């Protein structure tokens, strides 16, 4: 589920370290030639020949990986669609069971990293349904396919060297290890380089086995969340109620003010109010008539885990639900725009000089910002939610 959102940050070190060795394998061209060049580069880095041979023998181009890479349908779902499909009573119950089953491991993770159990449980649930659905793509073939393709070779190629090192450590079997289409492995879906850098042996067996060991997955997930900037003993998200005259132009994850200042504008938390000195943003995933949330500094960790607006909003909200928060207020947002309509609006915004990040039918951060600016210009409530009534103005 994370796809490649964190790969750039986690691969820069390895890319830099390998720069002085053998010539980097060029993307594209013959796949087998590409993999032979990867093998030569791995030897120049001093990686064991047996592990190199095992990875090269297992690697096959996988057209299905490329189809999944181009689809990524979650980005086209609305928050209400995705959250209602993802956060079920069954998942909340299983989360409570996992918390009881691994209480000592969660307690250790919180002591060492300051990350509450509900945060790890939410990622565990959405990534793999608590380990039940980890993906059936051969990991080495998925990484090799994406490294060979010329869209993002610098992001995926270093993962192949990490996979070779994991193989040498006995923590990956090139022929049989499977996972997500983008090469993530295990219950909390970690890329090989992340496993090398952040992996923790939670059960004491001398290996980091994220596919089968819940303690390893819990401890590794907590360490990663901590390293992404988690601030212990602070909230991350709270649903809020706003007054009828609320200034929507002030909303958005790129704008912050103190909780105290939001309170002066009439914002009221549904539940425990955060410390009034904390900085916070207000955002409405589906506009002013849908649920409205206050995002605190820890919310940025969810955005680092996965850049998708809808995913980050959903997993952070699910964590609050596992922690005992009430379900968001049942509302009826204004209808949004479907793919063709969204592309039509994006073209209109581009014609007015806005950068929408590409005409792709996806409501990304740049499109949201452009929508909000246009709503303000047109005298509409500037809640960044594109609707048919906005599209009708063009």
Polypeptide structure, described:
With 394 residues, this protein is mainly alpha-helical. Among the domains are: 237-322, Lysozyme, CATH 1.10.530.10; 339-391, no CATH class. It is built from 18 helices and seven strands. It has a five-stranded antiparallel beta sheet with strand order 4-6-7-3-5. Strands 1-2 form a two-stranded antiparallel ribbon. Strand 6 (279-283) and strand 7 form a beta hairpin. Helix 5 crosses helix 15 (309-322) and helix 14 packs across helix 15. The chain starts with 6 loop residues before the first helix and ends with a helix.
What percent strand? 5-15%
Q: Major sheet, described briefly?
A: 5 strands, antiparallel
Compute the number of helices. 18
Strand order of the largest sheet: 4-6-7-3-5
Mean pLDDT: 92
Find the count of extended strands (DSSP E, 2+ residues): 7
Q: How far apart lie the N and C ends?
A: 36 Å
Shape: globular
Under the CATH scheme, the architecture of the domain at 237-322 is: Orthogonal Bundle
> CATH class of the domain at 237-322, anyone?
Mainly Alpha
Indicate the radius of gyration in whole angstroms: 22 Å
Task: Determine the fraction of residues in helical runs and give it as a percent range.
Answer: 40-55%
Low-confidence stretches: 3-22
Write the CATH fold name of the domain at 237-322.
Answer: Lysozyme
Q: Give, in order, the helices and strands.
A: HHHHHHHHEHHEHHEEHEEEHHHHH
Structural class: mainly alpha
């Amino acid at each position: 589920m994370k796809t490649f959102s964190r790969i750039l940050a986690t691969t820069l070190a390895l890319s830099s370290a390998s720069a002085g060795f053998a010539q980097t394998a060029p993307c594209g061209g013959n796949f087998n030639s590409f993999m032979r060049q990867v093998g030569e580069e791995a030897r120049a880095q001093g990686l064991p020949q047996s592990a190199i041979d095992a990875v090269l023998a297992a690697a096959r181009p996988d057209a299905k990986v490329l189809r999944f890479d181009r689809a990524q349908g979650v980005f086209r779902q609305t928050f209400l669609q995705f959250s209602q499909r993802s956060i079920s009573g069954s998942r909340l119950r299983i989360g409570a069971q996992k918390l009881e089953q691994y209480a000592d491991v969660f307690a250790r993770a919180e002591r060492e990293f300051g990350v509450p159990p509900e945060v790890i449980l939410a990622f565990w649930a959405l990534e793999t349904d608590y380990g039940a659905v980890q993906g059936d793509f051969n990991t080495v073939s998925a990484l090799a396919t994406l490294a060979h393709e010329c869209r993002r070779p610098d992001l995926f190629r270093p993962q192949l060297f990490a996979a070779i090192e994991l193989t040498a450590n006995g923590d990956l079997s090139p022929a049989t290890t499977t996972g997500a289409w983008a090469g993530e492995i295990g219950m909390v879906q970690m890329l090989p380089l992340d496993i090398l850098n952040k992996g923790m042996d939670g059960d004491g067996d001398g290996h980091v086995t994220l596919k089968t060991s819940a303690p390893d997955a819990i401890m590794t997930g907590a360490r990663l969340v901590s390293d992404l900037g988690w601030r212990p003993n602070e909230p991350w998200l709270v649903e809020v109620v706003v007054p009828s005259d609320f200034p929507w132009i002030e909303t958005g994850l790129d704008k912050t003010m103190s909780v105290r200042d939001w309170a002066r504008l009439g914002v009221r938390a549904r539940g425990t109010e955060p410390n009034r000195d904390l900085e916070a943003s207000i955002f409405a995933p589906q506009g002013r008539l849908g649920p409205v949330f206050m995002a605190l500094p820890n919310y940025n960790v969810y955005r680092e885990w996965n850049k998708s607006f809808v995913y980050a909003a959903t997993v952070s909200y699910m964590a609050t639900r596992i922690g005992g928060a009430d379900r968001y207020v049942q509302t009826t947002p204004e209808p949004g725009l479907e793919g063709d309509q969204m592309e039509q609006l994006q073209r209109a915004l581009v014609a007015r000089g806005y950068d929408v990040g590409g005409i792709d039918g996806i409501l990304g951060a740049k499109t949201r910002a452009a929508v909000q600016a246009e709503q303000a210009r047109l005298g509409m409530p500037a809640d960044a939610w594109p609707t048919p009534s906005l599209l009708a103005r063009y």
